[in-house]
Design a protein that fits this description.
The structure is a single chain. With 209 residues, the chain is mainly alpha-helical. It has three domains: 74 residues, no CATH class; 64 residues, no CATH class; 41 residues, no CATH class. It is 62% helix and 0% strand. The protein contains eleven helices and no strands.
Length: 209
């Protein structure tokens, strides 16, 4: 936290120190920033420096951010980690949801976010629910961006989502897929086969396809 205060003092001078002092006496900054890594904090400082420079170019006056605003500046954008922007990642996931294994993904994080969101859902989402699904994809993708920024490896790991946040239709669709998967496993079909693939194979096996 001392590093952040020193940087803010260098950038904003008395406008910062007169409000916050030389250190985080009340712990307000720590409360907002405690979950962030050093790389996140450096990103926030860099963005503050850019804002100061932009203000100087335009003849405006730059003011120091409040703790919650600085925390927002510390949140990485995908581009900061060399990943596609959220809108581009969403478009790519939607365009190739029908062939995720055959597509050459621009970044593994895009594939993982699509997989965590659900390829079936991306292929069959109703127009009225596109915005909700896009937000869900965005949360999954941002979590992966944060892991990249923190230097973590990427692996299949879906964000926890309570059933209460899903609609009855989504719950029914999930139950149907899980039932199909269970039938496929009982019939001795490969365990890695997706539920809809397993259902198609079962129908074919009994002569219905």
């Amino acid at each position: 936290m001392d590093h952040v205060f020193n940087a803010m003092g260098d950038l904003f001078g008395a406008k910062f120190s007169s409000q916050w002092g030389a250190y985080d006496a009340e712990g307000k900054w720590l409360a907002e920033l405690t979950h962030l890594s050093v790389r996140h904090l450096e990103l926030g400082i860099t963005r503050c420096r850019e804002q100061v420079r932009e203000a100087a170019r335009s003849g405006d006056e730059a003011w120091p951010p409040q703790p919650v605003a600085f925390a927002a500046l510390c949140e990485p954008r995908p581009e900061d980690a060399g990943l596609p922007a959220v809108a581009d990642a969403w478009a790519e996931a939607c365009a190739h949801a029908h062939e995720p294994r055959g597509h050459r993904w621009s970044h593994e994080a895009v594939r993982l976010a699509g997989n965590a969101t659900g390829w079936w859902e991306l292929r069959h989402v109703q127009p009225s629910r596109v915005d909700r699904l896009e937000r869900r994809f965005g949360r999954e993708y941002q979590a992966l961006v944060n892991r990249v920024m923190a230097g973590e490896g990427l692996a299949e790991r879906q964000l926890l989502e309570h059933d209460g946040s899903r609609s009855p239709a989504e719950l029914a669709e999930r139950a149907g897929r899980e039932a199909a998967q269970a039938q496929a496993e009982a019939a001795g079909l490969p365990p890695t086969m997706k539920a809809d693939e397993g259902l198609a194979a079962l129908r074919a096996a009994v002569g219905r396809e």
